[in-house]
Amino acid sequence: MKVAIQGELGSFSHEAAERMLPQCAVVPCARSAEVFDRLQRGLVAAAVIPIENSLAGTVAEHADLMVTQPVFIQGEFLLRIVHNLIAATGVKIGAVRKVFSHPVALDQCRDFFRHHPKIEAVPFYDTAGSVKHVVANHLADSAAIAGRHAALQYSGKILRVGIEDDKRNFTRFFLIRKLNGNAKQNRGAASASAYQRLIPRGANKTSIAFKVKNVPGALFKALSVFALRDISLSKIESRPMRGRPWEYVFYVDFLRGDDEPARNALRHLGEVADFVKVLGIYRAA
Predict the structure, then answer these.
(1) Is 243 buried (19+), middle (13-18) or exposed (0-12) by CB count in 10 A?
(2) How far is 279 from 208, CA to CA, in rounded Å?
(3) Which residues contact 210 (CB under 8 A, 6 or more apart)?
(4) Three-state DSSP class for 156?
(5) Whole-structure pTM over 0.85, yes or no?
(6) Segments in the chain forming alpha helices (H)
(7) Span between the terminal Cα atoms of the chain, in Å
(8) Which of 4, 105, 117, 285 has the fewest CB atoms below 10 angstroms from its CB?
(9) How far is Cα 240 from Cα 127, in angstroms, rounded to an integer?
């Protein structure tokens, strides 16, 4: 099975894809839009994308693409993020003057840079890509911050293990598939047949996106459809709509699968919201 990821081979997304789908063939993509494009064109069977980090929050671009693109979440996975200092073979930590990595990874290793004031943090497009860069170019004064997977992929040497500030650093990944049929489900009216076949057995969690009018009580009415049925929300977040200044989409995760209370709640939500999109129904990690 071909599975698209954003980033280089050896990245955390690569590791998550192989943990979710052992024996899959990972297809690296330079940009997130390319991941979704390959999925829509049928060039890959699925994609694995990071959607949220426990420290950095939601991956905004992926949240936006989930709403606008016809895809469906089929699973989630929590990956413990361990940042390692990696260099080319023969490089000693005392010689390192620059460390490359993705800006989020650099930010999660502030204590390391505080204790090594002579080392410069250099933003790079990808964690695994930074390892590829320092190893391929045999940089004698540089290292990279990435996962162990990247060191194995590019034959890098791990100089320090676990240099992240917070040891409870996790990233939530989604396994997504192409959704056939009407993707937006305006006012909750679209048939569930578009995604019914994609719901895995034992699904117990649902992700949705919806929009309400900016009138008093609109959000209260929307959330009450879950409270009335004793459905627990595990997350709620709002994001601005692209091209619609000062209008927002609400993202909600709730702890029910495809059962009668959940279906009734979604039908009720469709009566009070401008639009509702079921992003996925899957087994909770």
Answers:
(1) exposed
(2) 5
(3) 222, 249, 250, 252, 269, 273, 274, 275, 276, 277
(4) coil
(5) yes
(6) 12-20, 32-40, 60-68, 103-107, 110-115, 127-136, 148-154, 193-196, 218-227, 260-272
(7) 22
(8) 117
(9) 28
Rounded distance between C-alpha atoms, residue 108 and residue 93, angstroms: 19
Fold held by 1-80+169-178: D-Maltodextrin-Binding Protein; domain 2 (3.40.190)
Q: For residue 154, how many other CB atoms are within 10 A of its CB?
A: 23
Distance CA 14, CA 28 (A): 8
pLDDT tens-digit profile of 198-207?
999 999 999 9
What CATH class does 84-160 carry?
alpha beta
Domain 182-285 in CATH 3.30.70.260:
yes
Residue 68 corresponds to which tokens in the numbers above? 């606008």
The token pair at 171 is 């990233």
- Would 1-80+169-178 and 182-285 be classified into the same CATH topology? no
Closest CA to 2 of 51, 80, 11, 18: 18
Hey, what are 60's tokens?
Answer: 């905004």
The 10s digit of each residue's pLDDT in 6-56 is 999 999 999 999 999 999 999 999 999 999 999 999 999 999 999 999 999
**H helix intervals, 69-205:** 103-107, 110-115, 127-136, 148-154, 193-196
Query: Within 13 Å of residue 89, how many CA atoms lie on the same side as its CB?
Result: 4
DSSP conformational letter for 116: -
